[in-house]
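Progress note, project year one: complex with magnesium ion.
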Amino acid sequence: MTKPIYSLVIPIYNEEENITEMYRRLSHVMTQLDGETELILIDDGSRDRSLSMIRELHHCDRRVCYLSFARNFGHQIAVTAGLNFVQGQCVIVMDADLQDPPELILKLITKWQQGYQVVYAQRLSRKKESWLKRFTAYIFYRILQRLSKVDIPADTGDFCLMDRQVIDILNAMPERNRYIRGLRAWVGFSQTAVHFERDPRFAGKVKYSFGKSWALAIDGIISFSTVPLKLATYLGMLSAGVALLMMTLVLYWRLVDPVSPLIGFTLITIAMFFLGSVQLICIGILGEYISRIYEEVKGRPIYTLKETGGLVKVSEMSSN
Ligand code: UDP
Ligand code: MG
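Model obtained:
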């Protein structure tokens, strides 16, 4: 097979109900592309029939290659692994559950052909997702934009197209904590959006539990902002201000009404709890950063592979 021009990277975790339909829709799109295509499926330690279905696709269609992790490492790592193996000049990352419509790939490619190096798909709506998910996602992307110096576009997921130049830079980044939509924005180059309506899942349950989404959100903020670290300073200033105000009040009361019991236990208890919680929050934030530094220095591989099909590693980063 000659070197492909297009590489499609799809992370898969327990998606047995979606794989056949995803492949059907993708093959239809692949026939419309003007060059060789490779489809890289990453099995993120699935416990259902996903891996055997992927193997079967690999045997029937030479364009399908796969990686299989020795356990579940998470979506961002699965995408990272895929990027380590892509050979194409133009790489498209998308989910396996058909929430990202494969047909949009053609639009992304048109933008690439116009000269953009990153084309990200931006959601106009999230059909049938719970109001809680929509609301928290809305708030999160706005907070992230406020806190980060990198302009991470709101309402974009990992569905995007990236040029080879961008992929080479991403693969060379030694960072283990990978918030891909942030790293993609950080890289720079000419970037543009293509808008789309996010469909509901074709089948199966969402694999991002509330806990996983929360962890991803915290990762996003901590990897791209140091503002939380400065929070301690501001909170310290605030409580110093409050203390100063209280001292003035106490002094005033002493002078005006020297016999009244000025400060009761309630006030002292409230002040203690307030200061205690401020300090704990600040220590917690420090802990978030330190734990990530710890992860980075340990230098463990970010994933372990148990099986590959039709792939040779092109990037030297990670699992070695
Ligand atoms: N996924 C994965 N590993 C995980 C969780 C999810 O590879 O630990 C894959 C999943 O199979 C899907 C994509 O990541 O292809 C997005 O997951 P999901 O649809 O559950 O999340 P959401 O739509 O909420 O982003
Ligand atoms: Mg999904």
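DSSP finds ten helices and eight strands in the chain.
Confidence is low (pLDDT under 50) at residues 316-320.
No further modelling is planned for this target in the current period.
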